[in-house]
Design goal:
59% of the residues lie in helices and 5% in strands. The chain has helices at residues 3-13, 16-25, 34-40, 48-58, 68-72, 74-78, 87-97, 107-115, and strands at residues 65-67, 104-106. The termini are far apart.
């Protein structure tokens, strides 16, 4: 999915102002908090279906998983000017979500993380 399609998909699910506020809140390196971020963008209150759609946007290579490389660019999935996560943030995010320890995040793990 190209970045323009991703942005359109995201903005059809989430409010672009909420996305911008959330990205601004975590603009500083190593400040990212997935729980607060998902809450701020309004993802926490969305249906399981919408959460799956967001997962699909973030799964850039359409493998059915969000791998560590994709996780680094997760904020870009919400808005093209989102920053890259630091290695520390990426690893913490992966650790929080990867319940089965396979080194990647499946759709069910992502949905569980969002609802935490």
């Amino acid at each position: 999915m190209n970045p323009r399609d991703a942005k359109m998909a995201m903005s059809s699910i989430l409010n672009t102002d909420d996305i911008k506020k959330a990205l601004d809140a975590f603009a500083v390196a190593d400040s990212f908090d997935h729980k607060k971020f998902f809450e701020m963008v309004g993802l926490k209150s969305k249906s399981a279906d919408d959460v799956k759609k967001v997962f699909t946007v973030l799964d850039a290579d359409n493998s059915g998983f969000i791998e560590e490389e994709e996780l680094k660019f997760v904020l870009k999935g919400f808005a093209k000017d989102g920053r890259d996560l630091t290695d520390k943030e990426t690893k913490a995010f992966l650790k929080a979500a990867d319940k089965d320890g396979d080194g990647k995040i499946g759709v069910d793990e992502f949905a569980a993380l969002v609802k935490e």
